[in-house]
Amino acid sequence: MTADAVLQKKRLTVMLAITVVCFVLAGAAIFGAVSLKIDWLLPVFLLAVAGGLGAQIWFILGWMRATKREGASS
Predict the structure, then answer these.
(1) H/E segment holding residue 53
(2) Cα–Cα distance measured from residue 8 to residue 34, given in angstroms and rounded to the nearest whole number
(3) For 35, what's the count of Cα atoms within 13 Å in the CB-facing half-sphere?
């Protein structure tokens, strides 16, 4: 594996971990906000969704930079 591939694999693992944690947190928060009527959990839900989306965007931008770098060196 090249150094870029190792870095991308690590980046993918981190992104998946963050996404799973945010998914579980968002599910629990929306359940609490809707079913249990705990109003302060709605912002927690929104932040969890934004965090998961941010992790995915971070991964894609890193992948694009690595691809651009690879294309420039060839």
Answers:
(1) helix 41-73
(2) 38
(3) 6
